[in-house]
Design a protein that fits this description.
The protein is mainly alpha-helical. The chain is about 70% helix and about 0% strand. The chain has a two-stranded antiparallel ribbon.
Length: about 475
């Protein structure tokens, strides 16, 4: 029975990713063609040509007998690594001189870090005091940095360190893999403008992705030892502190069932129990803090504000955007505690969807267009908030490089998933992590392209790790 369930789990993970990637490619392609034809914007016309070029290259790659490197692989990876280091040094030097002005969420993360360092308090304020609206991970790291050196440059240094961390961790994860997918993803991590410019912002995606790469490294080399299980639990707690994702913990259940399928199911359950215990121990300070703050157990951050902003709109084209909450609504509920405020906004959002299902349904295609949008959020932000505002030529060059790399990754991933059906426990775990995240995120929350990152890279990461993590090499507890 367990074997049958695992086979269904494995096959549906692959099929689900094929459907999801197909939708992203389809809606992304329609969007780019529409912009090219109707508005004749140069960067979209260039991207149309890059899509075609990426398709041709991927087709040629799959005409090969296999998808493996046979020569100069190590030398090639080192060249890419050195290029990534050089580009990061260049961008780090630039940020110390002309870092983009931090705005929106980026500014909030820095303010929360300052508040933690100076007041020992963690709260946001939007007319109602919010103490559980944002996860404390990145602000806590900022606070630690400010305790060492209380200067605005600390924020930039911390983000630059995360950028270097992703590069080095990525090299360690992919360097001994001999497939084309590992090459594509490492090129992206090393030189893509989105990755390079992400360090210019006080964003959580970069630090979150760093923790995930460390998690994949441990799972790739997993040998079943107790300390490895505790490290996995610690990394899952760390990613929860930065960006709330409770899914990847429970997906370890089928992961352990697969690698220990020759043993009793209680053995796999025991392994998961160790991971979960390690996670709870490290995440418990936040749970305890929330209990003393609200008098109730709270794992998940309050989501009512985001649900309201994303769904309460009369325009289908704005479903999935962050539309804000009217001052009149904030004033209406300003006397409530955060939990009551959260519940009130959540109920208003749910009731609005029930009363206006046509707006919600009509908004679904627009949500997919946004979710399949360009990974341009860091690039456009960089040029908008630096001295280069209005430099469309340079911005177009950077955006074109990003577009080409992401289309190569998307097209290669779906080609590979179509042609191959057998994947190990670790690749399936990563594929399901992307699929479940999207199925939960997409219906009710923001779906702008930046919320598809870094998950949009998961399929190609899974493909690169094909054959890894099927079973522990050695048991040594």
């Amino acid at each position: 029975m367990a074997d049958k369930l695992l086979k269904i789990y494995n096959s549906t993970g692959r099929a689900g990713n094929i459907i999801l990637l197909s939708l992203i490619i389809l809606f992304g392609f329609i969007n780019r063609m529409f912009m090219s034809v109707k508005y004749r914007e140069v960067d979209y016309i260039i991207e149309a040509g890059l899509i075609l070029l990426a398709f041709i290259i991927v087709r040629k790659l799959f005409r090969r007998r296999d998808q493996l490197f046979h020569n100069r692989k190590i030398k090639l990876f080192r060249i890419i690594l050195y290029a990534g280091i050089f580009m990061r040094i260049l961008f780090a030097a630039h940020d110390l001189i002309n870092r983009p002005v931090q705005d929106s969420d980026y500014e909030k993360h820095e303010k929360l870090g300052q508040r933690l360092a100076e007041e020992g308090e963690f709260y946001d304020f939007v007319g109602v005091e919010l103490r559980n609206f944002r996860q404390p991970g990145l602000p806590l790291i900022f606070a630690g940095g400010l305790k060492i050196y209380n200067h605005p440059v600390t924020f930039s240094i911390i983000m630059i360190l995360f950028s270097f961390g992703i590069l080095i961790a990525g090299y360690y994860l992919f360097r001994d893999l001999d497939n084309i997918a590992s090459f594509l993803i490492f090129v992206y991590l090393s030189i893509s403008p989105n990755m390079l410019m992400m360090a210019s912002n006080s964003n959580t995606q970069l630090s979150f992705f760093f923790i995930l790469i460390l998690l994949f490294i441990v799972l790739k080399n997993f040998k079943g030892r107790t300390y490895e299980l505790l490290i996995i639990g610690a990394l899952l707690a760390a990613e929860m502190y930065i960006r709330f994702n409770f899914i990847m913990i429970f997906l370890l259940i089928p992961f352990f069932m697969e690698i220990y399928k020759e043993k009793k199911i209680t053995f796999a359950a025991g392994k998961f129990a160790v991971v979960f215990a390690g996670f709870l121990i490290l995440y418990s300070p936040w749970i305890i803090r929330n209990y003393f703050t609200y008098g109730t157990i709270r794992l998940m951050p309050t989501a009512g504000l985001g649900l309201y902003s994303t769904n309460v709109t009369k325009e289908p084209s704005k479903v999935g955007d962050y539309n804000g909450v009217p001052d009149s609504v904030l004033k209406k509920y300003s006397h409530l505690s955060e939990m009551e405020f959260d519940e009130a906004l959540r109920n208003e959002a749910i009731n609005y969807i029930k009363e206006n299902p046509d707006v919600y349904i009509k908004g679904m295609p627009y949500k997919m267009f946004k979710y399949a949008g360009r990974q341009d959020w860091t690039i456009s932000y960089f040029f908008q908030y630096t001295d280069y505002k209005g430099d469309l030529i340079t911005e177009t060059i950077f955006q074109s490089v990003e577009n080409f790399l992401i289309w190569l990754i998307l097209l290669y991933s779906i080609f590979y998933l179509f042609k191959n059906k057998k994947f190990g426990a670790l690749p399936v775990y990563i594929l399901w992590s992307y699929l479940i995240y999207t199925l939960i995120l997409f219906p009710v929350t923001e779906t702008r392209s930046r919320y598809n990152f870094p998950y949009i890279l998961f399929p190609v990461i899974a493909i690169s790790l094909t054959g890894r993590g099927d079973k522990p090499v050695k048991e040594n507890n």
